[in-house]
Amino acid sequence: MTLIFAHRGAAGTHPENTMAAFLEAERAGADGIELDVQLTKDGEIIVIHDETVDRTTDGSGWVRDMVYRDLRKLNAAAKWNGRYGHCPIPHLEEVLAWLEPTRLFVNIELKNNLIAYETLEQKTIALVRRYGLEKRTILSSFNHNSMRFCRTAAPEIETALLYMEPLYDPWTYVRVMKADGVHPYHRTVTAAFVADAHCRGLAVRPFTINKPEAMKAMFAYGVDAIFTDDPRRAKECKQKTP
Ligand code: G3P
Ligand code: CA
Fold first, then answer.
1. Which of 10, 131, 171, 185 is deepest in the core (most CB within 10 A)?
2. What's the pTM value of the predicted model, to 2 decimals?
């Protein structure tokens, strides 16, 4: 059965990576949420996609140059013309504390492919363990070195390799990296690829799928989950897919 993960929360209808978007994901009946994490100057894990705050907030600058107290003052719903009021950038702990009593899964994407963020892995793993979410968490990153590090640091938490372009000999690569699954760009995914992955006990969760036709194809292939900005549409589409 294909699970539905709300990408950056329900980012198609709500300000991405905010509690408003995560709450909407739960209301929409998503099975899980996907979020992105970066590290502040003073070492706090915040939930934000970009390395800078410019695109999604009313502030400007690099996350790594700003302290958490100042980042909290920014409005992550600033680009939504007042529709969602003031939504602070969440701390990862805030999201995990909210998620713990729900049944939701969480995919924490470590955004450490441009900036290495020393300690991001250890701090993220520590928080996941503090909330007892090891079995409902998938760690992923475009930084595969980081995923290999997480495999050793937290053997009990699933890891997945994110990528955009098709991999050469993916199964050898995934075995060497000791990952539990792959998170490919959806246009690289075929039915045969999913079947091959499943033969090897690996999960396939493609991103980011918003069009019903593409959703239907992924459901037919039997992928383990899809990432979508519109979990309501995905739920509807799934119900209609034989
Ligand atoms: O985890 C899937 C997807 O979120 C990866 O791309 O840029 O939306 O973080 P991006
Ligand atoms: Ca992401």
1. 10
2. 0.98
